[in-house]
Structure formats: C-alpha cells, structure tokens
Design goal:
Layout: E1 2-7, H1 21-26, H2 36-48, H3 53-63, E2 69-77, E3 82-90, E4 96-101, H4 109-116, E5 120-122, E6 133-135, H5 136-157, E7 175-181, H6 183-195, E8 200-206, E9 212-213, H7 220-224, E10 227-232, E11 248-249, E12 253-258, E13 261-264, H8 277-287, H9 289-300, H10 304-311
Parallel strand pairs: 4-7, 7-8, 8-10, 10-12
Antiparallel strand pairs: 1-2, 2-3, 3-4, 5-6, 9-11, 12-13
Helix pairs in contact: 2-3, 2-10, 4-5, 5-6, 8-9
Length: about 325
C-alpha cells in the first residue's frame, strides 16, 4: 500500500476560483438537488485524480482550498486486476474533506480488465443484514484501499492533520464529499454504501457506469438521496455494463447535459441492451471519415475534461487561470 502526504501551497492571482469555497461546502444541503458550484469543484478534482499528488493539491488550492492537506492512497496488483487510487483532501481548518477516486486509466490494461470483471460480489452494508450484489471488479478495487482511506478519514474526524497526525486542525470534520469520474464514480458510490459516514454531505459522480446489481438493496434509498450523477449526452459509459452481462441499476439523482445546459432526468440512464452493434460501428472507422469523426466524438465525450468544461461557470476563471 502506497501512501503520499503533502500540503497544498497558497495560490497567487487570479486564484482562487471560489474564495468562499469552504463556506459553500459547509452550507446546509438545499433539498435533493445537486449544487452547480459544488458539481464543478468535484468534477475538477475528479478529473485531476488521474494525476499525481502535487497536481491534485495544486488544483485544490486553485479552487479555494489553499493549505489543504492532500493524501494519496493507492494499491496495484496486476494479476487480480487491481488498480485503485484514492485522494483525500482536508481543508486547512479541518471542517471539510473530499475523497476523490481515480477512474479507469486509459493506458492501463489492468484497469480495463477490472472494469470487465462483472462477476457479482456480495457487499457488506453497515447496519443491515442483507448483502447486496455489486460489480465484482469495482468492489475489489474499492475494498483494497478502503481501510487505509478509513484510517485517514478517522484522523480528519478527530481533528488531526492528514499530513502530520500529531498536529491538530482548528476543527474536526463536519462535511465530507466523495467524488470520481467513470470507475472513480463507481467506487465513490460503493464508499457511500459501505461506510455511511455521518459527515457525508453528498457524492458527485461523472460518467459513472452502473455499479449495483438489481434490485435496489435495502437501506440504499437514504444513500441514493445524496448521490448526484452527471452524464453528458452521447457518453455510453453510464449505460454500461450491457444487459447481457447482468442486470444493474443506478442510484441517486441524474443530471444530463443537453441543449447547452444541465437538466434533472426523469429516469436514470437505461442499461445498454447489447454490444452487437459496437463492432459494426467500429468497422466504420475503415470506411467513412464521417463515421470516424462521430465515433471519436462519442469516445471524447467520456473524457473528464469534457465534464469540467460543461460544468464550468462562465463568470469564473478556469483551473488554468484564464477565462473562456
């Protein structure tokens, strides 16, 4: 198990993107709707969770969490298709923490094999005797780093610094957010189901594939009210795995991007019925430039940067410090 710890530095102008970010994250939740500012923050952190600790800490500081503690927990076991990375970010005051799970790494075959391992696995839920079945590959990746993540979370709950456990923060943890893109979103949902941390405010996922086997497990409704899923129209991953691999469901409130804005969906994304047409579609790469452009556009829509761009407010600087 590899664990990295560092402290985010202060940022010069034009940052932070959100000067009042800690206060925004501490504000009481407004009903059952997702918060657009928090969604942008979580999408950005989830996107940069594909990078290293220094980059994640820098992005957190630019967003509005200067001097935050940043911890990376990771474990890789190729033979078991394990490729698990989680980041924990603790605000300088200690009142806010964010857990961000890394998604499928595009160039890592182990990560892809874990995604394809849909063998159902029984999951233990705190406070419930029932053991619902979940996506086996996702669950294995979540479990391998779970206890180290929980150790870090306990430190935050006790008001200790995640960089130096002997150092006290001004406050103990009050508000916890969990996020992730793609596979990272699936692991974020599993964390919320398995852990039931009392400080959990919300789970924000982006391009998240289905994770829970049908039917809806007992006790999942309360967790579902805190899950907000964001889906770009045309992104196929939220419809995966296909029905032929088992029946899966989504939890939480879904927001889809269409006609230039985000809208609450009446129904969650439906599970893909078949993969038969995918090979035929890919053959179009060899025969048609128009089809090639269409397919590449569909693949590109899944990228974390597309979700960050779609959620970025027009009146704020980007994480790069410019305006678009």
């Amino acid at each position: 198990m590899n664990v990295d710890r560092l402290l985010a530095s202060d940022c010069a102008e034009p940052f932070p993107v959100y000067p009042d970010l800690v206060e925004r994250l501490l504000a009481p939740a407004d009903g059952t709707d997702g918060d657009s500012t928090i969604a942008h923050v979580m999408a950005t952190i989830a996107g940069y969770a594909y990078s290293d600790s220094a980059t994640v800490a820098t992005i957190a500081a630019r967003l509005g969490l200067a001097r935050a503690a940043c911890v990376r927990v990771e474990q890789f076991v190729d033979a078991m298709y394990i490729c698990s990375t989680a980041y924990l970010i603790q605000s300088r005051c200690g009142r806010v923490a964010i857990i961000a799970y890394r998604g499928t790494e595009p160039t890592n075959i182990t990560s892809w094999l874990g995604d394809a391992d849909v063998t159902p696995a029984a999951m233990v839920l705190e406070g419930h005797d029932a053991r619902p079945t979940v996506h086996g590959g996702f669950y294995r990746n979540f479990r391998v780093t779970r206890w180290q993540v929980m150790r870090e979370l306990v430190r935050a709950q006790e008001g200790r610094s995640l960089v130096d456990p002997d150092e006290r923060r001004e406050h103990p943890l009050e508000a916890l957010y969990v996020t992730g893109h793609s596979l990272g979103g699936a692991m974020a949902v599993l964390f919320a189901l398995a852990t039931r941390a009392p400080e959990l405010r919300a789970v924000y996922t982006f391009a998240q594939p289905m994770t829970i086997c049908a039917p809806t497990p007992p006790g999942a409704e309360d967790v579902g009210r805190r899950i907000f899923r964001y889906v770009l129209e045309g992104d196929l991953v939220p419809a995966m795995p296909p029905v032929g691999w088992g029946e899966f469901i989504h939890l939480g409130r879904e927001y889809r991007h269409a006609d230039g804005g985000w809208h609450a969906a009446d129904e969650p994304t439906a599970q893909l019925t078949s993969l038969r047409n995918v090979p035929r579609t890919l053959l179009g790469l060899l025969t048609s430039s128009t089809r090639r452009a269409s397919i590449m556009n569909a693949l590109d829509l899944h990228g974390p940067h597309r979700y960050i761009d779609a959620l970025r407010p027009v009146d704020r600087v980007t994480e790069f410090g410019d305006r678009v």
